[in-house]
Specification:
Order of helices and strands: HEEEEEEEEEEEEEEEEEEEEEE
Strand order of the largest sheet: 11-12-13-14-15-16-17-18-19-20-21-22
Number of helices: 1
Distance between the termini: 40 Å
CATH superfamily of the largest domain: monomeric porin ompg
Pfam family, one: DUF481
Structural class: mainly beta
Strand content: over 45%
Largest sheet: 12 strands, antiparallel, barrel
Protein name: DUF481 domain-containing protein
Shape: globular
Number of strands: 22
Helix content: under 10%
CATH class of the largest domain: Mainly Beta
Number of domains: 2
Keywords: Signal
């Protein structure tokens, strides 16, 4: 009875409103919304309407039926990438019809990603920025942190960038500075494989490091990928260039690299991202570096959020007078677009 009611509700509103709005969604509780689907990622579908200044964000599991006129990129748990319009077959599966008219039936719970391919350049961009500041009377200590990210998502590739900085000053003590970031390009291959090219950079006073740039290429695979999480492995080779505070300590080396990444993004308003990377040197005897990141994020209304995270960098063969490890724990307030 409930299934029939959903189908009837969907049919009635589709007939009257479909000509005006391209995409329609009916929820499992019988409510509906019409507009233009922009994306679905990490279990949240985003839809734009004419009657709201901001986009609606809806849990994917709450959808009973949907139908689109928008051309969408669809990614599934088994690594398939389909292009076409979507029409619910029942409350358990949808049909994806390509521009050539070919139809593929996909179980609803196997869809992990949607993206409108009709959108312009700005619609494919994302960005986020976090800021933190503290002031302590003792020795006039001031600390400022910034964490930021931006990216672009296309049909078969994505470009991501991050920039993070910490600056701490206090009277009669040497300033502490740390900056890290990356630019990463990923190209989607069949069956959940992807190619990756990435440039990392790091500067910190704890390890006497003026600048480390690490250029790496490799290949990766998602081992598990659902609407609630993904877990993947990556690996390849890299070229590491390091400039230290003392010029005689500068290094260049070749490394292998292996990484694993886990992203949990359906824990209520929380999400968790963690990544570990090990760099065994190919050109320096017995040298091994290790990077680790973990971020816990809590979503607030109006696209604001609070994020707390740890970044650790380890080198078992540091230069003289430098420590083997440097880490920073930051808690910041941010906004994302």
């Amino acid at each position: 009875m409930k299934k029939n009611l959903l189908l009837l509700t969907f049919s009635l509103f589709s007939i009257s409103l479909f000509a005006q709005q391209p995409d329609s969604i009916v929820f499992k509780n019988g409510n509906f919304i019409v507009g233009e689907i922009k994306s679905m990622d990490r279990g949240i579908i985003q839809i734009e309407t004419d009657y709201s200044d901001s986009d609606f964000k809806i849990e994917w599991e709450g959808i009973g039926y949907m139908s689109t006129k928008s051309l969408l990129l669809v990614s599934t748990t088994d690594g398939r990438r389909l292009y076409g319009t979507i029409e619910s077959v029942d409350n358990n599966s949808v049909s994806v019809t390509s521009v050539e008219g070919e139809t593929t039936i996909v179980p609803f719970n196997e869809i992990v990603f949607l993206k409108s391919v009709d959108q312009g350049f700005l619609d494919r961009l994302y960005a986020a920025i976090d800021l933190g500041y503290s002031l302590t009377k003792a020795r006039n200590q001031r600390q400022f942190t910034i964490r930021s990210s931006a990216g672009y998502i296309a049909e078969r590739w994505s470009l991501d960038a991050t920039y993070n900085s910490l600056s701490s000053k206090q009277d009669e003590v040497e300033d502490i500075k740390r900056t890290d970031g990356l630019v990463s390009f990923r190209y989607v291959l069949p069956r959940e494989w992807f190619a990756i090219a990435q440039l990392d950079f790091l500067s910190n006073t704890e390890q006497l490091l003026d600048l480390r740039t690490n250029t790496k290429v490799g290949i990766g695979k998602y081992i598990l990928r659902t609407n609630q999480y993904y877990w993947g492995f990556m690996g390849g080779v890299s070229f590491n260039n390091e400039n230290y505070q003392i010029d005689d300590d500068d290094r260049q080396s070749e490394e292998a690299w292996f990484a694993t990444e886990l992203n949990l993004y359906d824990i209520g308003d929380f999400s968790l991202l963690t990544k570990a990377t090990v760099y065994p040197s190919l050109s320096e005897s017995n040298r091994v570096r290790f990077d680790f990141n973990i971020d816990l994020k809590y979503d607030l209304p109006l696209d604001f959020y609070i994020k707390s995270g740890l970044t650790l960098n380890y080198d078992n063969q540091p230069v003289m007078n430098a420590t083997k490890a440097d880490y920073v724990w930051q808690t910041t307030f941010g906004w994302e677009w």
